[in-house]
Amino acid sequence: MPPRTLALDLSRTSYVCNSCSTNLRLVHPPPWLVRHSSKLAQKQPPRSATSHAKLPKSQPPPSPAEMQQALAQARAEANDVPPSSVGSAEEPLDVRYFHEEAPGKYRRATPEEGFGSLGSELDTEIETSINDLEQQMVNTLQMLKTMENRGMQDKADELRKQFKRTLRDQYKGKTGPEAEDYGLLRIPGFSGPRQRAVANLNKFLARESVVKGGVPKPKDLTECWKFYSAARKTLSSSWGNVPRQVWDFLWMILSWEEGVDNANRMAHIYVLAKDMHAAGLVLRESQQLLAIEAMFIQGFQDEALESWKKAVAALGAKPETFKAYWELGVRMYCLHGDTDRAIRAADTLVKSKENSDPRIIIPIVRALAMNEETQEQAWTLYKDMRDLLGNSMKIEDYDEVIGLFLASNCTEHALQAFVDMMFGGAVDTRGKTRLPTAVGNHFFLGKWLKRLIGAGQPDHAYQVVVFLQTKGVVASPIQLNGLIGAWLRSEVAENVEKAEKLAWNMVHSRMEYVHLRRREALMDQRTRLFARDTPSVDGEVEEFDCRARATSETFSLLAENYASRGLHSRLEELWEISKQAEIGTTSFFLNQLIRSYSHDMQAEEAVNLYRTMTREMKVVPDGHTFLALFNTLSINRLVVPDEGLLAQDQENAREFFSDMVKSRWEFDSPELFSFLPRTILFSMLKLRDFAGVVIAARTMKEIFGFTPPEPLLIELATGSGNLRVKTKRNITKIMEGTGIIAGLIRRHRTDLARQGHDVDNLTLEQKTTELSEVLEQLVLQRAEAYNVDPAHLQRMLETAAHKMGVYDIAITKDPREIARHYKLPKESV
Q1: Would you say residue 51 lies in a domain?
Q2: pLDDT (tens digit, 9 = 90+) per residue, 56-72?
Q3: Pick from 519, 523, 541, 540: which is nearest to 532 by CA?
Q4: Would you say residue 98 lies in a domain?
Q5: Regarding beta strands 181-183 and 174-175, do their DSSP bridges make them parallel or antiparallel, or are they unpaired?
Q6: Structural domain range at position 747
Q7: Domain for residue 297, yes or no?
């Protein structure tokens, strides 16, 4: 097919609308039809402007026959054939025209077909859309012209501006992160139901929300690969139809890594680079580097390294790509295991005039440290990097070097790197059996352990503990407890096993210490504690002879772990060992035991244990202890209440409340302040201890500063504490409870209005008093439902207050007693 002579840039297509094509005329034969020999070019005089002016202004396009005649004349002039013989009957000239419908597929064009129809190269969908758009534009212009003729010039001008602005906004294209303009993105040449995947990709490219503001969203990344991967098979039949701008736009989205989680970035880039190569496109420098890296990461390491070496002249010598090229080579060779080439590449980078970063040596240090034979070479390179960076070396650089040495089991090198960070290289510890005083102490070890545990590296912290103990520095129990807690908080089975193993190791050390202390008490001379070789819990010999002894915190960590996992037998074993180890039981350990017994359906054992530990072992309970005790009541454990246990539960609840008031403890968290009073009120109300509920509410108001909020009153009115789940049944209960509480509030405010109070402007104290009185009125209503006389209930209050040990607080309200049993922290008073 001959090349086109008429080309208008309409969104980068070669389409010419009908109105324009009728006004365009050929003023001289097309250049591809006329060939002049050098002789004729010398003889023919140059055309002047006047000669062009004499040509007719309007001339119809040449027919195929005229084009054949012009071609024959051109051939005759080139071969010095007389013009008279051109086109004669003796030598007929047959000119055939072909139309390329698809790459490699041609169709012979008939003379009746015009070049305009053959040269459009537009599929049916695009032609239809363009024709519709052209017709709409013509209709719009006619409408505006009609408005101007009728004297509506201002309105026409306003509509014309709006029309131009709409077209500009609709076809402004996509803007990349660096303000690059991608124009209108579309892949032509694919239409029909079988090319639906390409149509979906075109719809994605046409979205206004894609890469809005120059930054793609996570949804853009996932959907871009979704539509492109679905269309790859269809596009592979004609890669040439995909415009370069579409390739660059797809590359920009699929290679994005800032601010989004693009886990499959390299895999997508590898596929996209292969497709662009199949389409015959030359990748830009930055794209080539990323494609080589993607090839390497996808497993084609040898091919990637070969491509990297071939690009040394194109990419390794340009200032724009010099640094990125050599850094990529260093990283790939380090991962490939060729540290010699990596060192040469890093040496080229460091010695260059470019603004190179000596931190590129860190990957080489990591690769060398993994091999025991080259660990000293890794240390030498680390020192070279530290000298090159000087004062610009940051704490993050030291952390990375320390981490890689620890990961390679080079603990001595890691220790020296940490010492360099702390003392600026002034202290040397390598190869020394006993560490210097500045390093060999608990404070230095504690700083390192705290940094490692805070960075989420408890395994490295344990490695440091084991190594420093060989240097004469034994970790303190507090430091090891922190390590055990970090392992347990991870909730990973392997880490929990490590924590339990270390904790029991400390427990055995504590047991040996107690045993030797007892022997020493029976002897006149001191007994030395030697290293032990005892089996662990699993029957295996311990690898680490821990010399730190377990404390009450160690036992508490194990107790909490066993209680949360429901290992009641292990918790009982720990309890027995704690008594043999002469560890003073804490309230925290007591709380775990109570919860464990309660979950194991041994509530009576839990209560007996509480009484033994608080009365005989003098353990001081806290607020969490009493919260656990109230949860041992059958009314809180059983789905169906047991009427035979109500009387015993009432007695236990009053005992727990009395002990709670007498014990010296304070609230330590907002959660406890929320759950403890709520649990107490619900428990006593479900136990039908109406006098106890009133006395408990009055007491908690004085020593807790607690006033029941309105949502809690609604839950108490419904008798259910699980109304937070929005079910149909719960919504009905909430509506019923809200009506009950609203009625009690209205009754209370009516009484206030009769007493002359302004109910529309209640003070904070009056609102607090109102909620407390509403609670008591609610309890009276519940008591009447169970045929309890209100007058009798009032007489029962003093008896209940005496039994609960709060008569001076709830009835007489003695300020000294209230101050002595106040449970809020002093700073909150």
Answers
A1: yes
A2: 444 455 555 555 565 55
A3: 541
A4: yes
A5: antiparallel
A6: 666-829
A7: no
